[in-house]
Q: What sequence folds into this?
């Protein structure tokens, strides 16, 4: 088990290194291949309406006029060891891991990401609990009661949930549940440590909105997997031995069905923690996703670069956790020593 964990950690580190190289290639190399000058690249980092002095200073700070190999080494050194940025007589330190410095807001990117990460984590984990439990439960009941009224209604709602985009359901819930019927307060994030009750009350509507889309997918996936598993020979054998239907469903049929669900869940939670862009934008939650949208509008390239690396980190981490959960979810899965 320990050897497997070490191998997976090594593979995760290697994958992050590859993602870092690809990210550098997209943001630094590809524009130069397209004919963009160092001054043109610096203008993308400075933001809107850059002055010639700011462009020249950015070219010097980021070494955009240096060879690609030198830029990549500086990029890695900045990421792993941190760096300092000089503005006249003022020097600003970007501590490791330095994900970049926003010349638009004059703040390190990592500092802003850490300030906004609690919002995204609260949104992601709360919605994940709802869509995982709700989606799997509905899928199991639909499979057990195949062809019933519940099955048809549940799958019809799942089809609606898959079809409707988050920005539509989010704005619709805000219009009716918040402004028209006054059932929920206007979403303004309250830290969990300051007011747990207020945090729950404010986040419940974004949770349900985000979970509705994913729960529909999980319900359909669980139902399909359960129907396939219930037709297996070992399920008929378990019933022939006189086991209760509850034990047959939850112990023998559900656990194999959860293997693909766990895989999808790892990807989904990684993407959400990387930035639930549409949900945060619809409900004006100042999380990582909205931070990325604001950076795109402001053409703040260092922020976009930092969010990309942060999202990659969470996806790799969540997939590592998923790999370790496989033998727990399904006993038939064995980890090689």
A:
């Amino acid at each position: 088990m320990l050897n497997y964990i070490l191998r997976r950690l090594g593979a995760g580190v290697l994958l992050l290194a590859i993602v870092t190289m690809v990210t550098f290639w997209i943001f630094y190399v590809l524009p130069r291949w397209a004919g963009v000058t160092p001054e043109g690249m610096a203008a993308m980092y400075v933001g809107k309406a850059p002055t010639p002095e700011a462009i020249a200073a950015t070219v010097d700070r980021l070494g955009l006029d240096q060879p690609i190999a030198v830029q990549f080494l500086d990029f890695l050194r900045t990421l792993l060891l941190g760096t300092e940025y000089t503005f006249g007589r003022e020097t600003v330190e970007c501590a490791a891991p330095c994900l970049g410095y926003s010349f638009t807001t004059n703040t390190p990117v990592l500092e802003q990401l850490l300030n906004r990460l609690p919002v995204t984590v609260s949104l992601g984990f709360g919605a994940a609990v709802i869509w995982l439990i709700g989606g799997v439960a509905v899928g199991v009941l639909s499979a057990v009661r195949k062809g019933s009224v519940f099955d048809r209604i549940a799958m019809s709602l799942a089809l609606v949930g898959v079809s409707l985009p988050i920005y539509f359901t989010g704005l619709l819930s805000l219009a009716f549940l918040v402004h028209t019927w006054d059932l929920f307060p206007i979403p303004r994030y309250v830290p969990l440590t300051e007011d747990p009750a207020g945090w729950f009350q404010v986040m419940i509507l974004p949770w349900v909105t985000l979970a509705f889309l994913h729960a529909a997918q999980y319900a359909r996936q669980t139902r399909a997997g359960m129907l396939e598993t219930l037709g297996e020979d070992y399920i008929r054998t378990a019933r022939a031995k006189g086991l209760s239907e509850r034990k047959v469903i939850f112990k023998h049929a559900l656990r194999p069905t959860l293997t693909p669900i766990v895989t999808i869940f790892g990807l989904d939670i990684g993407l959400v923690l990387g930035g639930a862009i549409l949900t945060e934008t619809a409900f004006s939650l100042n999380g990582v996703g909205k931070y990325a949208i604001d950076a795109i509008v402001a053409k703040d390239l260092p922020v976009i670069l930092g969010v990309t690396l942060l999202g990659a980190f969470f996806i790799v981490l969540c997939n590592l956790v998923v790999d370790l959960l496989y033998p727990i979810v399904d006993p038939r899965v064995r980890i090689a020593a």
Notes: The longest strand covers residues 83-87. The two ends are 6 Å apart (CA to CA). The chain is about 75% helix and 5% strand.
